[in-house]
Batch of 2 targets.
Target 1
Amino acid sequence: MSLWLPRWPTDRLRRAAARADRVDPQPRSPSPCPLPERRGFERKRGGGGGKASEGESPLVTAVTIGSRRLVAAANDAALAVGIVPGLPLADAQAFLPGLAVRAADAPGDAAALRRLAEWCGRWSPWTAPDGLDGIVFDITGCAHLRGGESRLAAEILGRIAGEGYAARAAIADTVGAAWALARFGKAGRGPVIVPPGGTRAALEPLPVAALRLPAEMAAGLERLGLKRIADLCAMPRGALAERFGPALAERLDQALGAAGEPVSPLRSVPARRARLAFAEPIATAEDLARACRHLVAELCRGLAAEGTGARRLELACYRVDGAVERAAIGTARASRDARHLTRLLEEKLAAIDPDLGIEAMVLAAPVAEPLRAAQLSLSRLREREGTHAKHGEGEGMGQLAPGAKPSPRSSPVNGRGGMVAADDAELAALLDRLGNRLGLANLRRLEPRASHWPERAVAVLPAAEKAPQDAASWPRDRLRPVRLLAPPEPIEATAPVPDDPPILFRWRRRLHRVRRADGPERIAGEWWRRPSPATPDDIRDYYRVEDAEGRRFWLYRAGLYRPDRPARWFLHGLFA
Amino acid sequence: MPPATPDLASLRRRIQAIESGGGPAAVLPLGIAAVDAALPGGGLVLNGLHEIMGAGTDEEDGAVAAAFAAGLLARLARRRGAPILWCLAADDLYGPGLAAHGLMPDRLVLARCRNDGDILWAMEEGARSAVLAAVLGEIGLLAPTAGRRLQLAAEASGVTVIALRRWRSGELAARQREAPSPALTRWRIAALPSRDAAAPGIGTPLWRVELLRCRGGVPANWVMEEGDATGHVALAAALADGPAAPRRRAG
């Protein structure tokens, strides 16, 4: 389905002005359908042509191209007196001295169109902005939910017109045909709906410009007498391609359905989703939480049937005023434990602003992974018994077969494998709870790396990742500090003899007198990591020093000793 | 003659048993006879909140205190075979240094938090989850109610909770140092200058370990030397010739 918003830029301006004018709105009531911008515009089913209300003053937007100011868009009142886009602005103002002119805001228009397309996701998950003045929907499998294609299109047009935008819609087998019919179809009252298989017949009477051709190509075709799509269809294909290039033939094929045309949606559409629409918009926290529980339960049933668990859940709340509120949670490992996921999601609900109310919610699991049944049943079982299971005696009984229902008696002593899995699941649940408040990236695990360079001797990895077995080992000597400052902090140090440790240094405004020292330990960065013109900072001479109070520090001098320049000292770590 | 009066120590044990709600609490012996004798029950109570703080400038950096805590955590992790959650705001913990004090970072989960509020929240979440061996939080401001919540969570789950105090300003340190806390024990660890003046280099670290407060016990302090640099035993034997702990009563 294609939706065309012929007066998008001027409608946006008028709507913004209407919002600013509304000095004293009536008390906002959240029901039944409080579209605040409906004032003054009669709701037109089908919105044929998008006629504006009476008394509207002519309005154009202007764009500067080179040294010329041109009309970029015009509203109906301006169009009625012959002011069309592309006309020099001076001419337009000569036609109509009282013409209101605004600067065109192409990025703003595009962004607003994107938002509108996103909001349209409530009717079909597969929506995208189409050019600068349209939205394309893939309504395959969506129409029957709204009582058929015509009712769906009428509903969409009604809502869009209610928002104050002129709109036309067409439903056809192909994107190209829907585009053509929305813009060039008969300006009837309702949406143009082409029955399946009727694409060719519907397209043939339309002008060639309906094929989404560049303006000059369309003009060229018309000069040759090829005014209608029917004329093109009658031409031999080879001659067309030779004369006008492959683009024309491709557009024709796309419109007629002979060539495929993928629509890329605004957001990738997850296959696993649950949807809930409300007869009355909801706004209270309890209602939101209840809806969430319902959605999670439904999604988890789907995941269980499929044998997968979610790694990420995204909740979209469609508000009555056309905004979409979103919340997302991630899990450290796949889960379809409804209680756990609901708990995670509920912590995010506070951030959702229902404003006037939410009329639909969609919960999707964009990332899911295979999840065996046994893990779930064991952790559930432990939860139910409320006891902390002890390690069983039996070794190697392992997990239950997927799908097997454990009897409450047999599983707590089900061998270590099962218990470890349950422990892992519990740890994963803890990590999820922590990660969704702190950010999963802030849960880390340290892993040793074979490098002498202190910053590279430790890798910081996400905590949820499994530790590999063949990691480098941790050092057991006390040559490395407990705390490592990142970055190293410059200090003022006094070292009377070039390669000796300092006798005095000042760190964070405090003077430390060095009593004992070990070193130097020269550490050079790996040659393959150094920048190609070697910098002196690739070599550090480290000293472990103890001050008069007994505190121990890790200091280094950057670079080799050079008599002609002062040494640069840094404090890098603190020993215990 | 009345029957033999029960001696003070056994009476104290009975009171403690009543306080802890039943049988004697599970404890973690530190493996140093002098210290274990000072702790009621013969070790650190497992399901409880313990506070560790540094001294002097280490109140801000917490390096010595962290090393002491790492030694305790290493024992806890070995005993329970479970992971440890370490919540921190400053990203300056260094894995090789922890390993040097006996705590292998393999089973350590670091939670990086934005502020004290998040750290408290993360500690409490961890303390409620019986899957952990222990939770440590590097925390500045610890309100009495927050400490009480941690203590209750630890009692319920059996997870040992350690509050490693790190104060960012002298004013906060002054206020918090003496503030009452619901923790079962409060330790202060300070670095001491190395003993052997003749030996070259910096030698083995020497700490003054003060048990400032201990529920059911009496304050005490020791000088400790970390025994061997490579071993798992992180807490060293109390020095035979070190200054004796000023112990007023037998505990």
Note: The first strand of chain A starts at residue 2 and ends at 4.
Target 2
Amino acid sequence: MGEKADVWQGTLALMVLKTIEALGPLHGYGIARRIEQTSGNLLTLNYGTLYPALLKLEQEGSIVSEWGVSENNRKAKFYRLTRAGRKQLEKEARDWEQTTAIVARFLRPSEDPA
Amino acid sequence: MKRLRAWTRRLAGLWPNERRERELAAEIESNLQMHIDDNLRAGMSPEEARRNALLKLGGIEATKESWRDRNSVPWVETLVQDLRFAVRQLRKNIGFTFTAIFMLGLGICASVAIFAFVDATLIKPLPYKDPNRLVGVYEYTRPCPMCNLSYFDYLDWKKMNRVFQSLDAYRGTDSTLRTSTGTVEAHSAQVSEGFFRTLGIKPAVGRDFYEGEGSPAATRTVLLSYACWKNRFGGKNVRGQTISLSDVTYTIIGVLPADFYFAPVRRAEFWTTLNEAGECEQRRSCHSLYGVARLRDGISVEAAKANAALVAQQLEKQYPGSNLGQGANVVSLSEAIVGNHRTLLLALLSGAGLLLLIACVNVAGLLLVRSESRKRELAVRSALGASRSRLIRQFVTDSVLLVTLGSGVGLLAGRWTMLLLRKLIPDDMLASMPYLAGLGLNARVLGFTAMIALAASVLFAITPALRVSDMREALTEGGRTSAGITWQRLGSRLVVLELAAAMVLLAGAGLFGRSFYRLLQVNIGMRPDHLATLRVAAPSTGYRKNEQQIALERELVRRISSLPGVESVGLCSQLPVSFNGNTDWIRFVGKPYHGEHNEVNERDVSAGYFAAIKAKQVSGRYFREEEDGSKPRVIIINNALARMYFPGEDPVGKRVGNGDLTPNSIREIVGVVDDIREGPLDEPMAPTEYLPFNQDPNENFAVVVRTAFDETATLPSLRAAIHQIDPDIVTVNEASMNAMIHDAPSTYLRRSSAWLAAGFAVAALLIGVVGLYGVVAYSVGQRTREIGVRMALGAQRSTVYALILRQAGGLVALGVALGLVCAVGAAVLIQKLLFGTPAWDAPTLSVTAVVLASAALLASYVPARRAASVNPIDALRAE
């Protein structure tokens, strides 16, 4: 897999939530960079797509935002996980793991215990 | 929960919020700056750092757009935008808007109001259990296809039929009720014990009649109608209370449900059983009851009718004296109750529908003209990137907005109109249509309106949207286009359709109007002006004997004659212009007889009656006051009877008797009176016999008083004079004879349908003519340049007039001709509703055609005049 993959629909929210959980309150640029880094630069993210995703999470009450100052002394909007967001993250992570586990079983039928 | 929260926030985002917009810009900017900082640190040049950051972001505006889409609901936003634009457009063309809404509202108002009547009368099921299994059961003779049964026949039919689960009998009567404040009139109904079980009605309070409660020995019991319970007894507990109804004591056993009604007995308040076997019930030839039955499972109305006919045949053989010629008739109960209104209601609904069609076509035409003038706007919008579907969407929004406004106006006006129309129905007639109580905007009426609105919206959206494609080329074509021609062709077709529909409505109204006129011209054989009338019901106690009734008659005539202004007084058993019925079967002494039914109306009249109503004497004499039971029995016949049974003979001196010529039934004809119309105006003249009141008296009769003063003003003093004789005598139906005739159901129905149809026709004429004006005016506008050129080349004004009027005249001629053909077709369908007027009544059709054509040509003359006054120089310069 030499080529970079696009972020596919539905997983961006999970990545965003996980990133904020791992790093604490973070601004949009930081989240985008972090997602790219975590993917080992395999994912290419159009930073613009992050804004609607963040807005959606905010509308759903999973994250809240407030203005703060970045490490480089720039005014920036920081996103923080709410309790509902934490729950959503747990649930979505669980669902995702389950889905990938099932798909993995299909792809490796020889290891099937049956 | 989470979704709901997100949606509320998104909906809230529909309102523009500048702070949020600024915040977004600031956020993007700060993130961008951080990115640039990082890029610089990584060693890029400033320009490259910025370029790279922007590239990664994917464009500031695009980002903002996608954020906004998420922030609110895009399709709602577009819709709101479209709506605002549509409202702005409507406000800008306030004239167009009002015209369109007015026309739509008018059409919908008429349709909704009439449909509400159709719904209440024909669609809403009768309020009984499985109402479609209920039938009315009648005896059948040729002059009377839905006639009442005699008591013995009813009992035999009940026993012998094989098709009815149950058969019960009823009749409506006028009773008197003794109250603490005096004796008052009370409508009541007498029913066989199983009547309510047959209908499937359970009393709301108390119990139904027992089996056997109708026997002569049983205690008299009564059920109250809900309205009676509320109005007369204050809705209090009345079970076990006793009341005095026509001097018989009844115990109240219950109250009927609030929504219960039974139209054939009108608004009967007191429901009793048929305990009293009266004089009539003891004769098989006396018909006093109507039958209502529930069909057995799997039996059709036709099968029931066939079986009932079989029973009737057996009875004919068994009792030829009374039953010869008596067939059977079984009709579904709803048909029996509302059947005679169906054609009229459907005709009116069609009329309203045509009006609505004209209105819609006209509005569509207006929209089309307007879409022409919006060509530029649309062209610009599409050039700026609006897709075809986006433009069509705007048309749909426009049309839905317009139709919503129009339907709203129409619904409100329709509700008001239907209630007004009901208020205009004479109370006496309304009493026989209790189902109209349910008139209103119910689910079915609203559904009907919604369907109209939907159809209209589609029509109005499609008409201009069809043209979107050529409109998009408008910009390339520049200002001058051939599009006007398309519109002219389509518009002309629409106008022909409108004119044809208007012609049908006008002709229909003309035929209805002429029928009504003919009805008013019917010779009633008397002078109805200055006649005051009322009905008198004397209590049975004190007025049961013949001598008492005759004494009452004499005292009443004496007292009323002495009132100021009174010229003459007469009594009769039934007022003229009411109904044909209360018949007698007669036979003539000395004429061959083969058991045929010579059925004639029987009326009992006082000595002064004919003089009082100013009837015309043909031969012989009138009755004398002293002619009572002690004198030889006499009879007066009307001209129709004389013509039918004594052609070419002088009937005076001939003798008449009943079918068996029983000696005490034989009467000598002493006079012939010219035909007085006893039945409704639209029924053929029936042979009628008149007996002297004093030889066949009754405690229930009508009084006719000819006065020199205003007859309506005389009524209170008449009532007072009667109550001076005995305060317990009940007087009802006080009215002038003219009002009686005017409000009689047949007169009323023809008058109201003529007025309604005329209303539709005038509206159709107006709208249709406005439509024609629009088309001609538009075409003149389009041809201004052409006309200018023609005139510059020497065309005379008259030539220009001819040019325009020829075009308009063609449309009018086509519309009127098409309309006439349809009108005759429609008139044949409603022939039953016409009176003395054929469907192809030439005078009516030609007058209405001329009216429509001249109105239409007048409407075209205005634009033609404008065309003729075109200044050629201006017209050419306008290029």
Note: Residues 478-482 of chain B have pLDDT under 50 and may be disordered.
